[in-house]
Amino acid sequence: MSKYNITEDGYYGRYGGAYVPEMLYPNVEELRQQYVSIIESPSFRAEFEKLLTDYVGRPTPLYLASRLSEKYNATIYLKREDLNHTGAHKVNNTLGQILLAKRLGKTRIIAETGAGQHGVATATMCALMNLPCVVYMGETDIARQRPNVERMKLLGAEVRPALSGSRTLKDATNEAIRDWINHPSDTYYIIGSVVGPHPYPDMVARFQSVISREIRQQLLKETGHENPDYLVACVGGGSNAAGTFYHYLQEEQVKLVAVEAGGLGVHTGKTAATTTVGTPGIIHGSKTLLMQTRDGQIIEPHSISAGLDYPGIGPLHAWLFESGRGKFYSATDEEAYQAGIQLSRLEGIIPALESAHALAALAFLPLIPSDTVVVTLSGRGDKDLQTYIDRGGY
Ligand SMILES: *Cc1c(COP(=O)(O)O)cnc(C)c1O
């Protein structure tokens, strides 16, 4: 175990832990005691791997992007998480957690969702496993993310509006936690990123670590070396980045680049660049960096991409930032948008606007021609078509 792995009591450096109300303690404790032995068991691994292959469509390709490489004068590979079933990396985690829920004997699934991506991934798995599914979503988000709301309903899930506060993700999370407190014995709460109380951040990172496991194997086959010079991923809560970095945390010569959403600019008050403007505090049951006022009220984030529109980051990332192991950048809405158009034109791949933030960071890196870079393309851009259209200019 290196200093970048989680400790026995659930910390990365000074970040992490499980700050939960007493009434949630039994649920979280049950998970904490059982998660490693269940998810590392041969029968779990076999079922998880088989569905990752046959249902999700893994392994996803590691694609040498020649024209993008030419543009930045380095060797650039894209890890194609956009080719997963449901169009993003989130399914790796929801599949893992629903298999865990079944083994814990749970018969009802709940989740929170912001833009609806995690809600759709969860509803998909509940359909596959024939489990009832309730997804909490802020009323504001329901109004602006209609297609995902309809997808969840089509898949058989119930979408319950969160009517408090700003009626966005944090309010949906509060509702999901309230539900879990009221249904402690039969219900499993699927969290969508490397956030929440211990053991969620570590559990989600393990499920997403399939990304870096495959990168190692694919890069070795392709280049004769397992290690790239740079790994680049966008960070909302941080799950696709955690999966991308996981098997490289100890390889100090591999530079880990995390890209947050700068929004309109990090000092405009309309941003989601947590490491730039955030301070330590507690959000969703863990100690981490978050955007908050002096008296601890959460500041509403802003990003062009719904998936990065989160006021905190997972505790692993807070620690990678503080320890210097990770290099954190932010890309503005406009930089991400332009990077999305650029990839469409150069490679014929329309990326999710979240992933476009990772691509935008290529312009900030001090690349030299001998560098090998792997950028994780966390999702595809179909869901963002309306945003591309509204912004125009391509
Ligand atoms: C949700 C989402 C993200 C952000 O979530 P992480 O947990 O930070 O990975 C990034 N890209 C896409 C396509 C998403 O749907």
Strand and helix layout:
Blueprint: E1 11-12, E2 15-16, H1 25-39, H2 42-56, E3 62-64, H3 66-72, E4 75-80, H4 90-103, E5 108-113, H5 117-129, E6 133-138, H6 139-144, H7 146-154, E7 158-162, H8 169-182, E8 187-190, H9 200-208, H10 210-223, E9 230-234, H11 239-245, E10 255-263, H12 274-277, E11 279-283, E12 286-290, H13 315-323, E13 326-332, H14 333-347, H15 353-360, E14 372-377, H16 385-391
Parallel strand pairs: 4-14, 5-6, 5-8, 6-7, 9-10, 9-14, 10-13
Antiparallel strand pairs: 1-2, 3-4, 11-12
Helix pairs in contact: 2-4, 4-5, 4-9, 5-7, 9-11, 10-11, 14-15
Bound molecules: pyridoxal-5'-phosphate (PLP).
- Share of residues in helices: 40-55%
**Domain count:** 2
Quickly count the helices.
16
Radius of gyration using CA atoms only:
19 Å
Q: How much of the sequence is in beta strands?
A: 15-25%
Which outline best applies?
globular
User: Which topology of the largest domain does CATH recognise?
Assistant: Rossmann fold
Q: Structural class of the helices, strands and pairings?
A: alpha/beta
* Small ligands present: pyridoxal-5'-phosphate
Q: For the record, what CATH class of the largest domain applies?
A: Alpha Beta
Tell me the number of strands: 14
Largest sheet: 6 strands, mixed
Poorly predicted tracts of residues: none
Textual characterization of the structure:
With 394 residues, the protein is α/β, with parallel strands linked by helices. It has two domains: 23-51 and 90-204, Rossmann fold (3-Layer(aba) Sandwich); 57-88 and 209-391, Rossmann fold (3-Layer(aba) Sandwich), CATH 3.40.50.1100. Helix content is 42%, strand content 18%. The protein contains 16 helices and 14 strands. The strands form four sheets. The protein has a six-stranded mixed sheet with strand order 3-4-14-9-10-13, with helices on both faces. A four-stranded parallel sheet has the order 7-6-5-8, sandwiched between helices. Strands 1-2 form a two-stranded antiparallel sheet. Strand 11 (279-283) and strand 12 form a beta hairpin. Helix 10 packs across helix 11 (239-245). The longest helix has 15 residues, at 25-39. The chain starts with 10 loop residues before the first strand and ends with a helix. The mean pLDDT is 96. The structure holds pyridoxal-5'-phosphate. The site of pyridoxal-5'-phosphate has 18 residues, from helix 11 and helix 15. Pyridoxal-5'-phosphate binds next to helix 11 and helix 15.
